[in-house]
Write a structure and sequence with these properties.
11 strands, alpha+beta, single chain, six-stranded mixed sheet, 158 residues, five-stranded mixed sheet
Length: 158
């Protein structure tokens, strides 16, 4: 692993990092069309730059409470192999260069439920957990159905 350029987001009182190459844009939460029978963390679909994007409440995924309604809440649009997903977070703060020497994955062995945490950056005055959006999109329950639903919506609208 080399140095990491990352977008720093906040959920709960913690900071998380998304590799900058996976982040497409940072948006305000707009009109979300709910989809019935999907997990609580799935808010629905939002149109971003003419794409239908599933919005996942990252605060709900991590802490069981919603980021919806928070004034600073942002949707971080990330690209995975199969689809774009929007992560609703309390705040998208900055872009940061994280030195390779500050990253360690030893503490992550306890996180079997969060395989998408790939490393932890231990910086001088902050600890930042790095999230892999690809692994996140593959490990969350219901993501297969979301992927199929989005593809079906795109086909219908053509």
């Amino acid at each position: 692993m080399s140095d990491l350029k990352a977008v720093i987001i906040q959920c709960g009182n913690e900071e998380y990092a998304l590799p900058v190459e996976t982040v497409v844009s940072i948006e305000r939460l707009e009109q979300v069309n709910p989809i019935p029978h999907l997990p609580d963390y799935m808010l629905g679909l939002m149109r971003i730059r003419k794409e239908l994007v599933p919005i996942l409440d990252f605060e709900q995924i991590l802490y069981g409470r919603s980021a919806k309604g928070h004034a600073e809440a942002r949707v971080v649009l990330v690209k995975t192999k199969n689809l774009y997903i929007g992560l609703l977070v309390l705040d998208a703060k900055e872009i940061l260069d994280i030195p390779e020497g500050s990253m360690s994955s030893t503490g992550l062995l306890a996180y079997s439920k969060t395989k998408y945490f790939i490393t932890v950056a231990n910086l001088e005055n902050r600890i930042i957990t790095v999230v892999d959006p690809e692994i996140l999109s593959q490990t969350l329950a219901g993501m297969d159905e979301i992927d199929e639903y989005v593809k079906a919506q795109v086909v219908q609208s053509q």
